[in-house]
Amino acid sequence: MPTCLECFCESGLDGRDLVKHIDANHPNFACERANCSHHSPGPVADDEVLAFILIHPLHYDEERDVVVPDAFQELTKRDLSTIRACLSKKSEAERTKEKLVQRGKDKIPPQLRLVDEVCVARVNEIRESSENDRRLLAVYDTALEDIPAHASIFTRSDVLESRLLRKIVRNKVHELFSKGRLTFSDFINGLPE
């Protein structure tokens, strides 16, 4: 059986295929207790806070000034990229922001993307999410070479196959993160250089 590190870094899989591979080899989110990246600072602890960077206008309903549930739809396709606040540095957060803005510029036709806000949620609350007494969400250390504070929220592979469960998961993550909305500048001002 491949290790968690091998599943994440050496399987060559991504998206739903990666989720299925992890579930098959390490059920019940066992990889939360393991390093899942060659650049790992260590597994994500329950008492950590994750930040999800909001992209304007994609993640907003401007009329109501709210974050839309679709902001979290990547979780229902593969995983949701976040930043571990306790490990992030200002330069990492800025690099992440620049990458997100650049992705919009690289589209055809180019899309204007602004990053003015983030949403934050506590890891223990994410991990406590359940449906019919089964956990719905995991938080894995998925550090990147240039962003060691990167972490990913995953769900189970059976959730990805069910339209109803995908909606439940997306709404749960939306609920958790929408409670902690702050400006990007306030977020990075709390980070070390």
Order of helices and strands: HHEEEEHEHEEEEHHEH
Domain tally: 1
Mean pLDDT: 93
- Binned, the helix content reads 25-40%
What general form does the structure show?
Answer: globular
Largest sheet: 6 strands, antiparallel
Query: Termini, distance in Å?
Result: 40 Å
Strand content: 15-25%
Q: Regions with pLDDT < 50 over 5+ consecutive residues?
A: none
Number of extended strands: 10
Structural category is alpha+beta
**In angstroms, what is the radius of gyration?**
16 Å
User: If strands are numbered along the chain, what order do they take across the biggest sheet?
Assistant: 8-9-4-1-5-10
Number of helices: 7
Question: If you had to describe this structure to a student in words, what would you say it looks like?
Answer:
With 193 residues, this protein is of the alpha+beta class. It has one domain. It has helices at residues 4-9, 15-25, 90-106, 123-127, 157-160, 163-178, 184-189, and strands at residues 49-56, 60-61, 66-67, 80-84, 114-122, 130-131, 134-135, 137-141, 150-155, 181-183. It has a 6-stranded antiparallel sheet. It has a two-stranded antiparallel ribbon with strand order 2-3. A two-stranded antiparallel ribbon has the order 6-7. The protein is globular, with a radius of gyration of 16 Å.
